Request: fold
Amino acid sequence: MAMGKRGKQRTESPFEPRRRARRRALQALYQWQLNDDSAAAIIDQFIQEQNFDGVDQAYFETLVREVVGRRDELDQAVAPFVQRAEVGVDQMERVVLRLGACELMFHPETPYRVVIDEAVELAHRFGAEQAHTFINGVLDRLAAQTRTLERQAERSGD
Reply:
């Protein structure tokens, strides 16, 4: 348990290990983009050098392997929704888009709103000033294409 602002113990969110896995995956994938190492090499390096307490390590490894292995497929999926020239998408935005697209396309167990919210938070925290707005728009349009049934069910419940 962690301590809250007033010194009271608070329980950690059950979603925090996955949130931390996404953050570690973002960092590992950013490094991968710069060095073009294998997924296994990046994963091994991060596990040796980073603290994985409270991190869903299996999910971290899954995300890194899927993004590295399906890079072209992920890039093609988001390409129709990127309204800027390729040079206008910086390295961090590209990582966040690939990570978000990976979860939208291959992890239907995670609600699309969670995927988008998490990607927006990563972009807000690690990206350029307006990166979160750009990420939100692209992933929202991708979700409309990849998660149609989930979005329809949500709308019919309103």
DSSP finds eight helices and two strands in the chain.
